[in-house]
Amino acid sequence: MESEYLNLGKKVLEEGHEKTDRTGTGTKSLFGYQMRYDLQKGFPLLTTKRVPFSLIKSELLWFIKGNTNIQYLLQHNNHIWDEWAFERFVKSDDYSGPDMTDFGRKALTDSDFNAVYQGEKETFCNRILEDEAFAAKYGELGNVYGAQWRKWKTTQGETIDQLKEVIQQIKTTPDSRRLIVSAWNPEDVPNMALPPCHTLFQFYVADGKLSCQLYQRSADIFLGVPFNIASYALLTHLVAHEVGLEVGEFVHTLGDAHLYSNHFEQMKKQLARDARDFPTIALNESKTSIFDFEMDDIQIKGYDPHPGIKAPIAV
Question: How many angstroms from the chain centroid is the CA of residue 297?
Fold first, then answer.
């Protein structure tokens, strides 16, 4: 099944359109691509490079809890979202350190600047962990996934817990065609640290199995997509566990599927490796609600990947 992902990487390298992008890095991309993973045949955690499952777990649990502050992530040694919070801080009047303008690109090309940047970001992260007031002000990312899933704001000033409601709908009306959670709110997009890349997901029940389809508007193939595949596969397992169904398929539909220009060689290296068997997932059977799960309640079994392949993130 890993061929689903590898075929995408190969196709974009060979046939992708050269595009400019928000980060200024440059990409090759294709529009409209779909992958399917049968979750009965293993958990789709890529084996052609190591994908850190602990980061996937903590990020997904962060979403499920409705949390939008990076403090929770940092407490679990997860630095996926650091840059977005750090960017808000260095643009604020409270920041008085070295100039961090365009830090994402400058850090890739200027080793001296990168050393300064890493030091400033480490100091920032430590303050988030140690200073509650600072964390409340600068660790907060606003209406990102956790807020949209659990606290969607209505025009009447109320909130909708989309995730809780869709789980209840699966239990009571499993044949519904409205088993949908949306993260894309046009009103919020201009003020968000990063508008949702995975914008909408839908559940489907058939033959005693729960399937999930994700529509992802923007897909960073090398760094982001492996996380997204595993994250939504895990979400499907967790929801299926609560509603008493087996897992079915994870269907991954991509809008702009792109490889950044500074990921081409890494993708080629990954494509040269042989895929291994997918691992399996083990959930704490004593937990009956998705909202009660913690890190230790989710374990991966039989994961034997090739070594990781480092690549720069485009901010």
Answer: 20
Whether 22 has a binding-site annotation, put simply, is yes
pTM to 2 decimals? 0.94
- Say if residue 60 is in the same domain as residue 12: yes
Q: Is 136 annotated as a binding residue?
A: no
Bridge partners (DSSP) listed for residue 298: 283
In a domain, 207, yes or no: yes
Q: Which of 45, 61, 167, 197 is catalytic?
A: 197
Check whether residue 238 and residue 266 sit in a common domain: yes
Structural domain count of the chain: 2
> CATH no. for residue 291?
3.30.572.10
Which residue type does 235 have?
L
Report which residue type is found at 302.
G
| Active-site annotation holds for 212 | no
220 annotated binding-site participant: yes
Range of the domain at 228: 3-67+159-301
The annotation status of 218 as a binding-site residue, yes or no, is yes
Instruction: Report helix, strand and coil shares of the chain as percent, to nearest 5.
Output: 45, 20, 35
Q: What does the block give as tokens for 121?
A: 């970001």
The DSSP bridge pattern shows strands 152-153 and 180-182 to be unpaired
Please indicate, yes or no, if residue 146 is contained in any of the structural domains.
Answer: no
- In the three-class reduction of DSSP (H, G, I as helix; E, B as strand; rest coil), residue 173 is classed as coil
Q: What is the pLDDT along the chain (315 residues), one digit of tens a residue?
A: 899 999 999 999 999 999 988 777 889 999 999 999 999 999 999 999 999 999 999 999 999 999 999 999 999 999 999 998 999 999 999 999 999 998 988 887 889 999 999 999 999 999 999 999 999 999 999 888 999 999 998 888 899 999 999 999 999 999 999 999 999 988 877 776 678 999 999 999 999 999 999 999 999 999 999 999 999 999 999 999 999 999 999 999 999 999 999 999 999 999 999 999 999 999 999 999 999 999 999 999 999 999 999 987 765
> Is 258 labelled as part of a ligand binding site?
yes
